[in-house]
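Obj.: predict assembly geometry.
Materials: sequence records (below).
Method: joint structure prediction, all chains together.
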Amino acid sequence: MLLIRRLLIPCLAILLSACVEDLAPESKDIRNSDSFKIKISENFNITTTTDEVISLEDELANNDAVVLYFTMWCTTCGGHMDEINYKSDSYPNIRFLMVDFISGSISQAKNYQRDNGYNNMTTLVDDDDILQNTYDGKMAATIVINNQSEIVFNEVYKSRLYDVLDSLNP
Amino acid sequence: MNTSTIFSQKTIIVAIALLSSSTTFAASCCGGGSAGSLILPKFGKKVVDVSFDIETYQGKWDSAGKYIADPKSDNQNQYRLNLAYGQRLSNNWQAGIVVPYVWNDNKVSGETSKTEGIGDTSIHFWYETFDRVTCVYQVNTLADLRPAIYLGGSLTIPTGSSMYSDDVDDNYDITGRGLYRFDTNIVIEKTIYPYTATLQASYGKYLARPVNQEYGEAIDPYTKRLGDRTSLSASLAYTVFLEDLDTLTFTAALSKLSEGKAKTANHEEAESQFEKQSSALSMAYATPDLRYIYKASWSHAFASDNRGMNFSVTDIITLGVSYAFN
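Observations (raw structure tokens):
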């Protein structure tokens, strides 16, 4: 009994201080009614690491959708970007744009892009936090905007992104 | 770029802590000090172990296994205080608990961040397949070659805060992976003084969990399960007996850690699998009565191509002390 008590007390203390969502996760849909409303993306004009200015309106005029991926050039982001790079060939009518939201300058973003080997991926430099504030961008956030300017996906990168893209690109 | 954004860079280093259990403990059925899991020596009844990890990010391996160094201007560190307690339950059974507390200290692109919190807790049980200490000074019979074999199970409990918690606004709050994991473990150890050879292996499975939010944002719910985890380690130790029968043990180890593809809903997440190869050197001083063991270790991930995949390359320095009592 003494042993159980000794082990139980610290265990309870840890569990009580821990996060309930992780200890007892729920599958309940907790989105509110606003979450189901279709959001329309405003236009943006953002400079890339190659000093080109990308306009959302222009991209949507020429593609079925635009995908924004928020990268920090970290290990996790690298894995996602490798997969995006590989899979993007299957979606010729969808524009994939990486978003560097941590570097704070075009020169620093260029360095990260080059050092990590992603020079072939068009990268927007969000040095004024425009995209981050507009889409609530965090690490690995992936946003899909269709050619009606509707935001149809905004989640951390995962494979169901491609279900969404398939539905846009039948 | 706002402050919270740059802070989220620490996810890199947080992930390291969550993935690489580097805690150095007293081990050996003979009671000497070497690296490994928290295992009581055969004659030990209880042990308290405190260790402190200093982990420094050096770069990463990409998904093709290419090593990419961290920019020199960046400085990412994580510190962990690991509190552990082990208890003998019977002659051949023992149990223990490890609770880490995590500090993140990062400087990325000129911005600094410091956060802290409890990490994921682990509880473990060990069964000793031998009744007597198997360490020998010389081999006289075949029976002297018998190794000490431990069979164990461990449960990782997501007591840290993960990206799926509602109290996490950004990545800098993360201190856990958010999923339960059960590991089966085996340790095979043989000491013929002054040498000790040890093999450790573990295989872990995560339990699937529902996810209905990411970074505090409600999303379309899905089920997530991380990939199976395999860990292998081989080590060789040399023990020096000092004047008062206190000992100094030097250990060299090679390790490989890998995790398979995660699953979200019905999809495999190909980019989620990873691999890490590392080496470690450790030194442990044990008092003659084996009550106190002081330990220091240096774990080094191989910073070169094809020594890992999709994973952070880090060095870990660990300092620790354990106290055994009845």
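Conclusions so far: Helices of chain A lie at 2-17, 20-23, 56-62, 75-87, 106-115, 130-135, 160-168.
To do: check interface contacts against the pulldown list.
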